[in-house]
Amino acid sequence: MKQELKELEDKINWERREIEDLLSFSILELEKWWQKKEVSSLKRIPSFHITGSIGKGSTLLILEGLLKRHGWRTGSFLSPHLVHPRERIRRDGKTISEAEFASLLQEILPETQNLTYFETLTALAFWTFFKNQVEVCLYEVGMGGKHDSTNLNPSHICLFTPITDEHLKALGGNLEAIALEKCGILKESTRIALSLQQNPAVLSVIESECQRKAIPLLLEGRDFSFWKQGSLGFFQGLGLPKPFSFPIPFPPEIHLANTGLALASFLVFQNLWQKEKKTWKETRPFSSFFSDSSCMAWEDLSFLSSLSLPGRMERIGEFLILDTAHHPDSFQALFQALEVHYPGRKWAGIFSFYKDKKIPQILAFLMPRMEKFAFLDGFSPRSASLDFMASLVSCPKKLLNIATLQEGLEWAQKEWFPKGMLLIAGSHSIVGAAKSLLELKKRNKDLHVPLNKDNQ
Questions:
Q1: Number of domains within the chain
Q2: Burial of 395 by CB count in 10 Å (0-12 exposed, 13-18 middle, 19+ buried)?
Q3: What's the rounded mean pLDDT across residues 251-268?
Q4: Shortest CA distance to 264 belongs to which of 208, 226, 307?
Q5: What is the pTM of this model?
Q6: pLDDT at 19
Q7: Domain that holds residue 407
Q8: C-beta of residue 53 within 8 angstroms of C-beta of residue 327
Q9: Of 45, 136, 274, 307, which residue is least crowded by CB atoms under 10 Å?
Q10: How many Cβ atoms are within 10 Å of 223's Cβ, its own excluded?
């Protein structure tokens, strides 16, 4: 395992570098590997392809749960990981084992010498799904769409989560260019596309591309809708005779839209894919296709309320929250949820951000909500410098002199818990480092964060 991981880690890893122009990238080498390994049978397996800026991974995991609950053998590829790269590849709703990861990686490494880190993991996902004969595949785009390694899959059902100007420089310089790059997942094999609400400029591009490629497009607010009432979500549209209720994964304030998109996508899949014949129904023309609601029988959806979504308002013990939020919109959604579930609590924070993120806007939102906070770097070569982050602080008296996560946890244990709660957030890297540290301390019986029953 160690040797295979070293070979993987030695590959060019653009996730740890600042990408200036993704549009110049090519997936030709991965395509050569695809053809050589003869995994093209994957193109006959129904696939979901998810792009956007916010909520892609959560939407994938909720959709995976729906498929698994209804008896489908699934293969899922998502990114980035928090602790170990095998987290990116899932089979039947679970991360593949260390043994399977090492064995299959060993099988493909000799033939992937020219592939990057992300391309190799994408190839490993393809190989895993091929070897295990999964029945349906789910792929989360890494960055963009057209030039992303995942775009070798047939993208039968394309999902668009909200698209923002994240990765502006790498994806073309303006919002319309970003949307066009993400629309690159729409291809001849695409049967249908679904989108959550978008910026008008983004929506115009999606609609134009779908029209140009003769792909039916279902939109939130026009073709389907969802809302929260009490503790439940409600869904209507797509020809259903009346709304139905569903549980929302915790926290519901963050995952309502993700769940709504996953439900709509699953309903579409139930109608379009003929499992016995292993073929798609015709979707063109699309008018009144969902008038037959007999295909929309649900199994019990109660599992959604307990669905685990790592790194999204993940509580460790009584007073510690981990969250991968790294965009102003994500932090706003996070604090809406925190104010509901932890009303009146005081907050301290330990943050690390990548330098290409909207750090001034994020800090302008965070600082009034923090009693104390600290910045850390070094979790990734893309991390913003401590000096830069500190220069944006308008209230230096709140800034803690903490150099490591270990010091941060020790400070919180001695001086902050239980009067306040601690938030560790800003990037997948710092959340992954925190989870690794907490797991190590737990194994060494050195975990001083007060535990709840779920963490013992």
A1: 2
A2: exposed
A3: 95
A4: 226
A5: 0.92
A6: 67
A7: 314-455
A8: yes
A9: 274
A10: 18
Q: Residue 192 carries which side chain, given as an amino acid letter?
A: I
- CATH number of the domain encompassing residue 400: 3.90.190.20
Gap between the Cα atoms of 321 and 390, Å rounded: 23
Where residue 102 sits, what CATH number does that domain have? 3.40.1190.10
In three state form, how does the secondary structure of the chain look? CHHHHHHHHCCCCHHHCCCCCHHHCCCHHHHHHHHHHCCHHHHHCCEEEEECCCCHHHHHHHHHHHHHHCCCCEEEECCCCCCCHHHHEEECCEECCHHHHHHHHHHHHHHCCCCCHHHHHHHHHHHHHHHHCCCEEEEECCCCCCCCHHHHCCCCEEEECCCCCCCCCCCCCCHHHHHHHHHHHCCCCCCEEEECCCCHHHHHHHHHHHHHCCCCEEEECCCEEEEEECCEEEEEECCCCCCEEECCCCCHHHHHHHHHHHHHHHHHHHHHEECCCCEECCCCCCCCHHHCHHHCCCCCCHHHHHCCCCCCCEEECCCEEEECCCCHHHHHHHHHHHHHHCCCCEEEEEECCECCCCHHHHHHHHHHHCCEEEECCCCCCCECCHHHHHHCCCCHHHECCCCCHHHHHHHHHHHHCCCEEEEEECCHHHHHHHHHHHHHHHHCCCCCCCCCHHHC
For helices 56-69 and 252-272, what crossing angle results, to 10°?
A: 50
User: What number of residues does the chain have?
Assistant: 456
Q: Residue 48 in contact with residue 157, Cβ under 8 Å?
A: yes
Residues 385, 377: contact at Cβ < 8 Å? yes
Q: Which of 291, 280, 287, 326 shows the shortest CA–CA distance to 424? A: 326
Domain end marker among 274, 306, 338:
306
Expressed in angstroms, the distance from the first to the final Cα of the chain is 28
Residues 268 and 335 in one domain: no
Paired with 420 in beta bridges are: 346
Tell me: pLDDT of 370 over 60. Answer: yes
> What are the pLDDT digits (tens) for 184-217?
999 999 999 999 999 999 999 999 999 999 999 9
Contact 396, 377 (CB under 8 A): no
Bridge partners (DSSP) listed for residue 218: 194
Check if the beta carbon of residue 430 is closer than 8 Å to that of residue 329.
Answer: no
Q: Which of 240, 276, 246 is nearest to 260 (CA)?
A: 246
Average pLDDT over residues 157-181: 90
Q: Tell me the C-alpha distance between 263 and 107, whole Å.
A: 36
CB 348 within 8 A of CB 416: yes
Token pair in block for residue 51:
């792009």
* Last residue within a domain, chosen from 247, 276, 306: 306
